[in-house]
Amino acid sequence: MFMATIQCGSVMQADALVTRDPSAMPIEPHHFWQEILPPAPSRAPGMHGYSDAFPAVLPDGSRLMLPIRVLPGAGDRAVASLIVNQASFAVEDALAAAMTALARPFEADVLVGVPTLGLPLAANVARRLGHGRMVPLGTSRKFWYRDDLSEPLRSITTPDQAKRIFLDPRMLPLIIGQRVLVIDDVLSSGASMASVLRLLARAGVVPVGIVAAMLQTERWVAATDAVSPGVSGRVRGAIRSPLLARGPDDLWHPADDQT
Questions:
Q1: Total number of domains constituting the chain
Q2: Which end is more exposed in the chain, N or C (fewer Cβ atoms within 10 Å of the end residue's Cβ)?
Q3: Which domain holds residue 132?
Q4: Is 247 within a domain?
């Protein structure tokens, strides 16, 4: 797997920040998602909780430091955030390489990309699989789009912004009767992916699988299975991150309930 070149100091800084080492210099917000770090030392992940960053582990053992975001509400729950279009090209390529390895066994005929942040990943993975194109879904309605090929769309990052997701009717011949694999950036609540599954079902398509850059918590399982029973068993993710709960030590720990 591709690994970005890193400075020793940045590795020590990131490792210290995970558990709030007083000597650690804080990572500036714009420095997240810029480097792939080597595998962690022998200390068990999460043994002492997390402070400001969560070390998500890629299949080869390398790590991507993710900022911890406190969820709206009581302030006692948080998630680790991944925003792909703010990541370095090296990080995007590392995630896409891992996703390609996970996608290959599905032997898909075509990839469907989920907007917005799943689209660059879908294009990247499609190229690596040797595909000539991918099918992008959209949230910006064109005048030739049809209401019967759209679904309401919400996500954990934009809970108060109601919009719709569309399938361009001109793309139907590319997916009907084909082995369709859905590519997205993050599965969290599962609300967005449930909308995608309902939209594809309108076209008579049941995807052979779903590959995401990150699987965040386990809440997406029930939401996706409610639309397409058993589909959660065909979901793969390059990295995983848990729902986090604030502990008595004021650090973040994986919550007991991930659903």
A1: 1
A2: C
A3: 90-241
A4: no
Question: Do the Cβ atoms of 114 and 188 come closer than 8 Å?
Answer: no
Residue pair 239/56 in contact (Cβ under 8 Å)? The answer is: yes
Does residue 4 form part of some domain?
Answer: no
Q: E strands along the chain, which residues?
A: 53-57, 63-70, 77-80, 110-113, 135-136, 150-153, 163-166, 180-187, 209-216, 235-241, 244-246, 252-254
Residue pair 168/142 in contact (Cβ under 8 Å)? The answer is yes
- E strand or H helix that includes residue 15: helix 8-18
Tell which residue, 205, 195, 194, 197, has the closest CA to residue 171: 205
- The structure's pTM equals 0.87
Mean confidence (pLDDT) of the chain:
88
CA–CA distance from 180 to each of 109, 125, 211 (Å)?
6, 14, 11
Predicted pLDDT at 157: 55
Please state the rounded mean pLDDT for residues 173-178.
98
Q: Which of 159, 115, 180 is nearest to 141 (CA)?
A: 115
pLDDT band, residue 8 (cuts 50/70/90): very low
**CATH (domain of 100):** 3.40.50.2020
Decide if pLDDT at 42 tops 70: no
Does 55 map to a domain?
Answer: no
Dist CA 23 CA 46 (whole Å): 19
Q: How would residue 40 be classed by pLDDT, with cut points 50, 70 and 90?
A: confident
Does an H or E element contain 257, and which?
none
- In a domain, residue 71? The reply is no
